[in-house]
Amino acid sequence: MEIVVRAVVFALFLFVVTRVVGRATLSELSAFQLILYVVMGDLIQQSVTQQDYSVTGGILAISVFALLTIGAGWATKHWKRVRPLVHGVPYALIRDGEPVVETMRMERVSMDDLLIATRQQGIRRFSDIDLAVLETNGRISFFTRAGASDGAAAPPEQLG
Question: Which strands, in side-by-side order, build the sheet including 91-95?
Fold first, then answer.
């Protein structure tokens, strides 16, 4: 039973850590960050199982993580209030050609990161952007003023 409790505690801890790190950071991991997360996983395994190398201990720890993942998915499907906690909410980074500095600061998106993303989309000036949204997966969606006729989806109306 102790493995189950430890697995729940560390699953919640990892959830909090990934939320604190920020979605923009998680969308494109550097080599160092990837190594850090792999090592962190190994360290957590040791903490959860207390060096219990038995097959039963490993299956139990993995099963708890899997059940927590399934439970989170079920909860987001059935309770609307849980979805923002688990998946996050999209935030507007640019509105009417102007960066939303408060949101950028809160989500730890630098101006350089935003400029890189606009260049990658072939956008030359912020003034061409009607709305830029930091999606829950860490990617940035751009809605340009001239983009209404290109078949793109209409921009979301209400964003944080």
Answer: 98-99, 91-95, 129-134, 140-144
